[in-house]
Amino acid sequence: METAPKLGRDVPPKKDKLQAKRKKPRERKNPESQRSLSGAQDPFPGPAPVPVDVVQKFCRIDKSKKLPRCRSKTRNRLKVAETEEEETSVTAARSELLLAEEPGFLEGEDGEDTAKILQADIVEAVDIASAAKHFDLNLRQFGPYRVNYSRTGRHLAFGGRRGHVAALDWVTKKLMCEINVMEAVRDIRFLHSEALLAVAQNRWLYIYDNQGIELHCIRRCDRVTRLEFLPFHFLLATASETGFLTYLDVSVGKIVAALNARAGRLDVMTQNPYNAVIHLGHSNGTVSLWSPAVKEPLVKILCHRGGVRAVAVDSTGTYMATSGLDHQLKIFDLRGTYQPLRARTLPQGAGHLAFSQRGLLAAGMGDVVNIWAGHGKASLPSLEQPYLTHRLSGPVHGLQFCPFEDVLGLGHSGGITSMLVPGSAEPNFDGLESNPYRSRKQRQEWEVKALLEKVPAELICLDPRALAEVDVISLEQKKKERIERLGYDPEAKTPFQPKPKQKGRSSTASLVKRKRKVMDKEHRDKVRQSLEQQQQQQEQQQQQQHKQEKAKPMRARPSALDRFVR
C-alpha cells in the first residue's frame, strides 16, 4: 500500500521565485562558425582594426593620471565613464573614414617657390566654384575697411572708416543689408548668428539686425576700438580708448564685468578660441591675459621692446603670435611656459595677424600680405620662407581667415579682397554646430540649444580641463578640519545597521532609537579616549617641566657683577 510522502523528506524543494524567473543566457555563436549565404567563410572576422594614433586624436581622458582615492561607487562610475569614452573615440575614428573632403595644398614644380605664385595663376588652375571665391570690391570712397566672417563661414560683414556698413552672403554674392551710419566705424563683429551685428562706432556701441535696422544703442560701452565675441558664453568683449575691457552678455543685455587694464588706450585685442581668454596688447611691449571672473590679469608676458601692434592665437590655444614696433614677429608657447619658440625680423612691422583653422599664419605689412605654413594642423608655422605672398592696392586694415573655406578676407583702404589660400581651412564641418547650409528653422533651433548650453562667465580660466578634475587637496583639508572639530573620524567605521526583530519590535522609531543609542555610545567612547590622551599629554608636559626645574643649578647669592653677565 502506497503511503503519502512526508513533508520535508521526499518532496522536492520549491524553486525560488527569482530563480524561476531567470532565463538562461543566450549562447553566443562562434564568429568562425558563421558563414555567408554563399557558404564561404569570412577571412577577416570581427570589426576592422583602427590605428592607435587615430583613436588617440579623439581621446579626451588623460590615462596617465591615476584615479583619486574615493568610494567604490564613485570609482565604478569613473571606470564606466572611461569605458564609454574609449568606445566613443573608437567610433569617431571609424567615422573619420567617411569624411569626403580632404585639406588642400599648394606645391611648386621642381623646387619652385610657392611665394612667387600669383593669385591669377591659382584662379586659372582651380575649378570654377573655387575660382568664384576670389574677388575684389573696389570701395575706395569709404575705406579703410574691417572685415569679419560668421562662425559658419557663409556670411561676410565689413565696415568702413567713413560709416559704410554692409553684410552679404559672399558665396552667392547676395547682399543682406547695406547702410551708412554717418559716423566712423572702428570695428564690426557678427554675434552668435548672422542675424545680429555689433558695430563699434565713433562714440557708442550699436547692435543691428541683418536688415540694417538699429536694435540697441549701448551707451555704457563708449569709445570702443576693438570687438571680440565669445560664442559659447554669449559674451561681447569690448576694448576702449579709456583703457577698460568690458564684457556684455548679449543673451540678457547686462554687463558682466568692466575691468580697468591700467595700460592706456587699448588698440590690440584677440581671443583664445580654446579657453575664451582675452589677450590684450599694450604700448609697453606686454601682452596680458584676462578673464571676467578676475579683476587682475591672469598672466603678463613681456613680448617686445616696443609697443605691441598685433596679437593672434591659433584654434588649439597652443601658440600665440605677436608683432611689435621693433619689427619683430614672435611665436610664443601658451602651454604654461610662455616662452618664445620662433622669432623673425621683418623689413616692415606687421600691423595685423591671423591664424587659420589648420595653423597657417597671415601677417599684413603695409600693402603686402605674407602667409607662413607649418607641417599640418596644430603645428608650429615656419617663419623662414613664406608660403604665399600677395600685394594689395592699399594698406591692410583688417584680415581674417574664412572658416571651412580656403579663403583669406582682407580689408584695406581700397576695399575688400578675397584671397585664395589652399590648405588653410578645415575641409569638414560639424553639421550640428556650424552648418553653412542650414535653413532658417535650423538656425532658430540651434539658437535655443546654444542658449540652454551657455557656459557661465565665471568658468573662464586658463585651463578649462581643470573644471572637470576633483580638487583632492580641498577635500582632504575639509576632512581634516571636520575630524579636528568633532574629535573623531565619522567615516572611519561603517554605520551600525540594526537587525530586524519579530513581533512588531522593528518599527521605524525603534530602529532609529537603537541606531542613535549605538552612535551615542561610540561617540562617548571616542570622546573619553580623546580626553584620556589629552590628560596623558598634560601629565607628560608637567613631568618634563618638573625635570627641567630640577636640572637647573641653584643660584648663588646675588652679586653686583651679575649685571655684566649675558
TrEMBL record:
<feature type="domain" description="BING4 C-terminal">
    <location>
        <begin position="386"/>
        <end position="464"/>
    </location>
</feature>
<feature type="compositionally biased region" description="Basic and acidic residues">
    <location>
        <begin position="7"/>
        <end position="19"/>
    </location>
</feature>
<keyword id="KW-0597">Phosphoprotein</keyword>
<dbReference type="Pfam" id="PF08149">
    <property type="entry name" value="BING4CT"/>
</dbReference>
<dbReference type="InterPro" id="IPR036322">
    <property type="entry name" value="WD40_repeat_dom_sf"/>
</dbReference>
<feature type="compositionally biased region" description="Basic and acidic residues">
    <location>
        <begin position="519"/>
        <end position="529"/>
    </location>
</feature>
<dbReference type="GO" id="GO:0030686">
    <property type="term" value="C:90S preribosome"/>
</dbReference>
<feature type="compositionally biased region" description="Low complexity">
    <location>
        <begin position="532"/>
        <end position="545"/>
    </location>
</feature>
<feature type="region of interest" description="Disordered">
    <location>
        <begin position="486"/>
        <end position="566"/>
    </location>
</feature>
<dbReference type="GO" id="GO:0000462">
    <property type="term" value="P:maturation of SSU-rRNA from tricistronic rRNA transcript (SSU-rRNA, 5.8S rRNA, LSU-rRNA)"/>
</dbReference>
<dbReference type="InterPro" id="IPR040315">
    <property type="entry name" value="WDR46/Utp7"/>
</dbReference>
<comment type="function">
    <text>Scaffold component of the nucleolar structure. Required for localization of DDX21 and NCL to the granular compartment of the nucleolus. Part of the small subunit (SSU) processome, first precursor of the small eukaryotic ribosomal subunit. During the assembly of the SSU processome in the nucleolus, many ribosome biogenesis factors, an RNA chaperone and ribosomal proteins associate with the nascent pre-rRNA and work in concert to generate RNA folding, modifications, rearrangements and cleavage as well as targeted degradation of pre-ribosomal RNA by the RNA exosome.</text>
</comment>
<feature type="repeat" description="WD">
    <location>
        <begin position="301"/>
        <end position="335"/>
    </location>
</feature>
<dbReference type="Pfam" id="PF00400">
    <property type="entry name" value="WD40"/>
</dbReference>
<dbReference type="GO" id="GO:0032040">
    <property type="term" value="C:small-subunit processome"/>
</dbReference>
<dbReference type="InterPro" id="IPR015943">
    <property type="entry name" value="WD40/YVTN_repeat-like_dom_sf"/>
</dbReference>
<comment type="subunit">
    <text>Part of the small subunit (SSU) processome, composed of more than 70 proteins and the RNA chaperone small nucleolar RNA (snoRNA) U3. Interacts with DDX21, NCL, NOP2 and EBNA1BP2.</text>
</comment>
<protein>
    <recommendedName>
        <fullName>WD repeat-containing protein 46</fullName>
    </recommendedName>
</protein>
<keyword id="KW-0677">Repeat</keyword>
<dbReference type="InterPro" id="IPR001680">
    <property type="entry name" value="WD40_rpt"/>
</dbReference>
<dbReference type="InterPro" id="IPR012952">
    <property type="entry name" value="BING4_C_dom"/>
</dbReference>
<keyword id="KW-0539">Nucleus</keyword>
<keyword id="KW-0853">WD repeat</keyword>
<feature type="region of interest" description="Disordered">
    <location>
        <begin position="1"/>
        <end position="49"/>
    </location>
</feature>
